[in-house]
Amino acid sequence: MCIGCGLASLACCVTSTACSCCCAACPSCKNSTSTRIMYGILLVVGAIVCILMVTPAVQDGLAKIPFLCANDTQLISTLRDVFSLPPNAATQGVCSLVVGYKAVYRVCFGMTCFFVLLSLIMVCVRSSKDPRSGIQNGFWFFKVLILTAIIVASFWIPYGTFEEVWRYFGIIGSFLFILIQLILIIDFAHSWNESWKAKMDDSESKGWFCALMTVTVFMFLIAITGTVLYYVFYVGHGTDSGCGLHKFFISFNLIACVGITVLSILPFIQEVVPHSGILQPSVISVYTTYLVWSAMSSNPDQDCNPGLAQIVHLNATTAEPLGVSGEDWVGMFVLLFCVVYASIRTATTSNVGKLTGNGDDKADYGSGEKVLLDDDAKDVEKASGGDEDQKVWDDEEDGVSYSYSFFHFMLALASCYVMMTLTNWFNPHFTDKSALLAGTGAMWVKISSSWACLGLFVWTLVAPLILKNRDFS
Known about the structure:
- It is a single chain.
- The chain has 473 residues and is mainly alpha-helical.
- Helices cover 70% and strands 1% of the residues.
- It has helices spanning 2-12, 16-24, 31-53, 56-63, 66-69, 73-83, 89-92, 101-121, 132-137, 140-154, 161-202, 207-233, 244-264, 267-272, 279-297, 307-313, 326-344, 351-356, 369-384, 404-422, 432-466; strands spanning 29-30, 392-393.
- A two-stranded parallel ribbon has the order 1-2.
- 37% of the residues are buried.
- The chain crosses the membrane at residues 37-58, 103-125, 137-159, 165-186, 207-233, 245-266, 278-296, 329-347, 406-427, 447-467.
- It is found in: Membrane.
- This is Serine incorporator.
């Protein structure tokens, strides 16, 4: 419902009439929420542009436009001198500058610079009374214009060492975003289970219990099915297949998932973590199983990494098509989910709230749920009072609902993650020599993130036992 309010905020920078019309057509929404959704939309639009750039159909369509992609020798020679183009630019044509993996690098570089700039500007903003909050929550036309200008300017950076250096920043940023992504996934699992258990306890019907068990069983079935398929397709054939590392990844993840499930239902764990159950480990099992697949898909050894095309067609000669792979689509979906969840998650007692600085200045963490209910009551009062046409209200007069600076920093890291996902994690196909080393590095980054996810989840269960003097409620 807040997406409409976000679009209304975008229309505000063009004309106040458009804003009034849009706001009148959508439900009430907090200004802090609609703003985060708007920034999320900017990231998603940028990701869509990057997806189009690596889609073969788009590249083929551009190649059919004579005046745009003509192989003009004189023009290419001029561009080669200006941008330090590689020698094969003459055979690739002018369109090679605006499509492909190198173009994705530059679009994501522009988005990263934009969000880093906003992150620096928004440092130490405490409330909406700060003049900088106006930049955060308004001026959308100018911010979109600046973002577009930075992206266009990035295409004027000379080719060569830029891609090599930016790749290292990309993998560091992607790894940091994966760590944030892990916290979001774990928080989502705990929040989901806690919410449904509360509804189950408040309701005399067994419907919520059946729903909880159905979702849990479904999640475990997905994890089990994925594990079986991994053993069938990703461990090679015969005893000398050389895919022992994949066998270790799959087996370790299977044992770990069983371990966290048993740990979650132990009596002494549930005594200190009352909301612990089997829904959380089922969600974590699905996510870590996906990470194992993502890691194995980055293995440059084709004997151990058949690719989705070969698996679907059951044909060893079917090559994985260039462009956006199945793994890329799954990665983009997980990214979208995490960004949306971080945008709408406002509970001050959640891991996301503490991660992004929600309620640092206006909530007492010790009061927990009461503070959240009181804040919601105040928000409803603000929404219902005053101007009847006011659909987006300022909920940050007394203190910001989230850290502006950290939120933009997270989106900057997400831009790096988009870049690395769509370019196959250091495998942009412009040097065969770097493909082997890059693929191996990406494989270890992803499998390490899987183990980190398991470790973080275990810590959320055992931390109250170890740190007894701290309040984890």
